[in-house]
Structures are given as structure tokens and as C-alpha cells.
From TrEMBL:
It comes from the Eukaryota. One of its GO terms (cellular component) is cytosol. Its main location: cytoplasm. Palmitoyl thioesterase that catalyzes depalmitoylation of CGAS and KCNMA1. Acts as a regulator of innate immunity by mediating depalmitoylation of CGAS, thereby preventing CGAS homodimerization and cyclic GMP-AMP synthase activity. Does not exhibit phospholipase nor triacylglycerol lipase activity, able to hydrolyze only short chain substrates due to its shallow active site. This is Lysophospholipase-like protein 1. GO terms for molecular function: carboxylic ester hydrolase activity; palmitoyl-(protein) hydrolase activity.
């Protein structure tokens, strides 16, 4: 059932910029959600869409596949895993296939005239994990990565890839609720510390009392960070 790369074109929910499109943001949903669902959730939390005058926001939907934590039930997930834990092996076959599919999405933006260093990728929960795989293993020239309520497994291929190659790395912006009982805050902290030790510039914002969810304060901090990585025309180089 897992789709082979090249045969999948992800469904995309797109929020177009009000002004001239000079940057793109790819926002990946958590397990079992959809691009449209994530957009609706953010709109509910902010009481308005997440929008920028110059940034196109793309909310892709993961293709349905059997998901082991649901006893093989079909779900919109970016990859499979044995369980939601940081001490089990990654299901690299499904992660790598999806890295290729998301590469095609990035390539579409580049082909439309957006430079790689004007593209951000990130996500919530599983989406944040997927974004870290895409950026740190395959696309180190993107503008940055964000991971909300996310983690990497202790033996992640991301760590292995970063340990083998040097060079400039995209900055990581992380947010995590201290009361998260599904993806423990400690897992987010460990991920942050491990990536920093491998040369990634990282920020981790902790939100006391926040569970496995999005908050207004978190999204406002994310918006501010996005604009530091993808400034408008006054801050961007015109070419």
C-alpha cells in the first residue's frame, strides 16, 4: 500500500500571499490529519488564517497507508513506525520514500522561481519529524526548519547524516508543551540538544501547561521566526 515515489502527487491546500510571491512555507500535519485540517486548526487557534504578504503557504496531505500504531489501520501519515517512542528503530523505507515525494514538492517551488534559501519546511508532531529528515538529510540549503511537539528517535538517520557531513545547516525552531503526554517534552529536549551538538543552530520554546496541541502564543512566536528567516522585499535580495 505504501506509495512508491514518483507515483504520488500530494494533495495540497495552498494559502496564496496577498502580494508578490517571493518565498514559500511547507507546513506538514501530524499523524491522521490532513493539510486542510491543519489549516483549519491553525485558523481556529489564531482566529484567522496564517498569512504573509509575500509567502505562499503549502499544507500538503500525507497519502493514506497502513499505520502500525493503529494495528495496521489506514491513516494519513508521513511514515510508519513501530510505536510513538524515541527508543525504537525508524521505519526508514517509508521515511525515505516520503523524502523523495516532498523533494518533488520543493522542486515545484524552485521551478516556479523561488530560490531554495527562500523555502522553509516544518510541521506539527510527525510532520516536524518528517521536516527534519527532509531538510537535514536532503535539503540543507533551505531557509530553516521548524518542529512543533516533535522529536527524533535516539538512533535517527538524521543524526547519522549530520555526523558524516559538514557545511552550513538550516536553523531549527522548536516549540513543545511541558504537559505533552503523547510526545514527551523530554524527547523534544533530547532532539534539540543532539542536533545542537551536531552543529545545528537551535531554539526551543517550552510552554508550561500545554498538551499535544497548538497555542496562540506558540503560533505567534513561529510567525515572528518565519519572518526572520523569510523577510519581505525590503530585507530580501531582489534578483
Amino acid at each position: 500500500m505504501a506509495a512508491a515515489s514518483g507515483s504520488v502527487r500530494l494533495q495540497r491546500c495552498v494559502v496564496s500571499p496577498a502580494g508578490r510571491h517571493s518565498a514559500s512555507l511547507i507546513f506538514l500535519h501530524g499523524s491522521g490529519d490532513s493539510g486542510q485540517g491543519l489549516r483549519r486548526w491553525i485558523k481556529q487557534v489564531l482566529n484567522q488564517d496564517l498569512t504573509f504578504p509575500h509567502i505562499k503557504i503549502i499544507y500538503p496531505t500525507a497519502p493514506p497507508r497502513p499505520y502500525t500504531p493503529m494495528k495496521g489501520g489506514i491513516s494519513n501519515v508521513w511514515f510508519d513506525r513501530v510505536r510513538i517512542s524515541n527508543d525504537c528503530p525508524e521505519h526508514l523505507e517509508s521515511i525515505d520514500a516520503m523524502c523523495q515525494v516532498l523533494t518533488e514538492l520543493i522542486d515545484d517551488e524552485v521551478n516556479s522561481g523561488i530560490k531554495k534559501n527562500r523555502i522553509l519546511i516544518g510541521g506539527f508532531s510527525m510532520g516536524g519529524c518528517m521536516a527534519m529528515h527532509v531538510a537535514y538529510r536532503n535539503h540543507r540549503d533551505v531557509a530553516g526548519v521548524f518542529a512543533l511537539s516533535s522529536f527524533l528517535n535516539k538512533t535517527s538517520a538524521v543524526y547519522q547524516a549530520l555526523g558524516q557531513r559538514g557545511g552550513e545547516l538550516p536553523e531549527l525552531f522548536q516549540c513543545h508543551g511541558a504537559a505533552d503526554q503523547l510526545v514527551l517534552h523530554a524527547w523534544g529536549q533530547e532532539t534539540n540538544a543532539a542536533l545542537r551538538s551536531l552543529g545545528v543552530r537551535t531554539t526551543l520554546h517550552t510552554f508550561p501547561g500545554l498538551h499535544h496541541e497548538l497555542s496562540t502564543d506558540e503560533l505567534e512566536k513561529l510567525k515572528s521566526w518565519i519572518l526572520t528567516r523569510l523577510p519581505g522585499e525590503t530585507g530580501a535580495q531582489k534578483e
